[in-house]
């Protein structure tokens, strides 16, 4: 506001008239162009030149002034205009950002002949980055139309030096139709592989579903290339399946006709040979094919299905000699449920064809009947499988036709998967049976009860005789309409001791389909009902192929959920169960009570724990402490703590074999928690953490745990000394020293051990110093890292630890790594900042890349005004080897900071830009993690800098960013122009 103090009255009037706008201490013109117009008119009237104007400075605010001067001259003084325009676009003395501004402005109006004569020769000098800016003028309709009128577009397309610039401009030209783009590029299709790739890349930036001419151009390119890549579909044609499914079918058929060539299928060596397997494809191709089928099933069946059918017929195996009436299986669709996440071409075509036939049956009945009629006599299992999908989609409409289709060939009973050869037939029968005529159902039953596959007729399969019938008849039983079916099904139920067969719904199934009693029914069960159910379902298994009903494991999960809802009831129920009840039910109640939102009183807990504790072989130790932890709002009764303590001393551990060298997936603590003694250690740690009174009854158990022979148990017991610190520091110290007295140094990699040292390392350094020193000298590198961490942490508050810390800082790679981690984590803690800063500066150039990476984490964590506090560290980082490997750390910190650090910003951005490879950003905006943010932070540095020197350095970088076409720079400039203020 001080700039207008001398004209305060005028300023107030202009603010009142909304010519100016006041925001705090700042005054700006409401419209940028008003001030610039006034400036330009005054400048031109004084017969100034642009060269004179820019001799003083070329800061960003000159951009708008320059545009207004040229616009004013263009209307009133053409001679001066051409002189000044030529100076701006050709002089090396003019900054790049000003050339950029003028190039953008030139594109806002149709060119005169004089402008064309000046600019068009410059367009051919593509080695000059400033001249490349001028290509943007061709993106305006007026300039493009004039270039076409003069025949320059075709000429430039034919010249290697200008081809890429024309192609870059094509999709950006205002009002240029897709048909014109296709006309321009069509002659170049097939001229070379380079041209084919260029056109494919260009089409990938367009939506070819909006114009047939572009789609035809794409097909032409693909044909010229002579082969398809599955990536072609998602890259260029990603919108086709939903917007133009018919075109998408054309594209897919063009691909399939080359890929599914029946002539290329090798002769099978035997009926078990599987030639012609379709393995190519990816997830995008899968989605492309399935989306077509969903969008237009008729188009899919019209176009894609005939190609696929021809291939299936050519690739299918011969009929098995042991099953002369069987269907022929092909190598791609014989086991369609075995997709296991596969996205190959076979899986894509399988799923797409399934979807198409289902949609056809559901929404296009007459067309579906036509397809059925055409394959009525087929002996191809895949074709029958697809027809079944259409029948199933509208079972009421096709019930009788579906059964007639099944009965047309005895082999059609066997349509399914792997061990479930008849499952698809069964599913179809189950869908249509409620709507089919009784006569057809009876005929189907007659066919089924006489049906025995080859395997069942062999001596080895004799005990399974009737299994196929059982599988098929199960689809008829729910309809309840066929007495012969029900009778035979009951016989087979007794033979196989199963209620029903079960098959795969999504791949091969394992385990049981569900509990024998539904959870909704369980809510109505009395205690007596539960006791009877537990006795009835005492086993954990069932028939290997009876997946429909589980046993004790499944029912116990239901009991667990009910115990959560009513814990007191189930504490009492447990006491009524016989001791020989499957232990899973006792475990279920223990877990349910531990997870309940409702507390139970001491008597209920005592009933539950006493019952579980007196069971033969004491099988419930892993879960017996959970109810005590859940109900720990007050100290636990001593007798119940003694029960838990018994398992801590006498329970099973993970075993000595499990204490070997651990892998990534088998950590010590995980193995410990999954043992009885380890689980007791976890519960005891929680109990002593909440009530100091719980300690005394558990003292003996704790002593046993911290000296346990199993390292895995000690690992989970490490939490106990940590939690005892606040109540019993002396006992905590004794337990901790006993815990780590084991010879195996892996104990020092345990979280609880390191947390204890972090809390007590400085205050109890006299007794813990030897432990930390042992860690530093360990043969295990990971332990050395932890030892270094503890040494440095202790030295922050205890002078006696300084010598150990110095050894770590100057030690081997593992020790230096630990030191770097501590310095990075504590850098912004005020009383440690200088100490950590000095350490980190040394580590930025450490010989070890791992140490440098750890030190760089300090810069990653800087936020708020931290950069202002540690600017020396940031400057050192900028000049270090660590910066070369972690540039994004500093750029991100600068982006986040609330501090004003223009000099650091300029230095960092200069370093990043100077390290970019030659040609970075050529032709299209260049970006990486750091570059993406440079345009943002460098403009802030320009605005924040009080120094003309730093501001000009920032301007140099803005120019360079524009010249390199870095992502975001142009947008940032536009934003800056709009925000111009006085």
Q: What does this protein look like?
A:
It is a single chain. This protein is mostly helical and 982 residues long. Helix content is 61%, strand content 1%.
Number of strands: 2
General form: flat
Tell me the Rg in angstroms.
40 Å
Distance N to C terminus? 9 Å
The number of helical segments is 56
Low-confidence stretches: 268-277, 336-340, 505-513, 542-548, 657-666
Percent of residues in helical segments? 55-70%
Overall average residue pLDDT: 85
How much of the sequence lies in strands comes to under 5%
Q: Can you list the strand order of the major beta sheet?
A: 1-2
Largest sheet: 2 strands, antiparallel
Question: From the helix content, strand content and strand pairing, which structural class follows?
Answer: mainly alpha
Assembly form of the protein: single chain
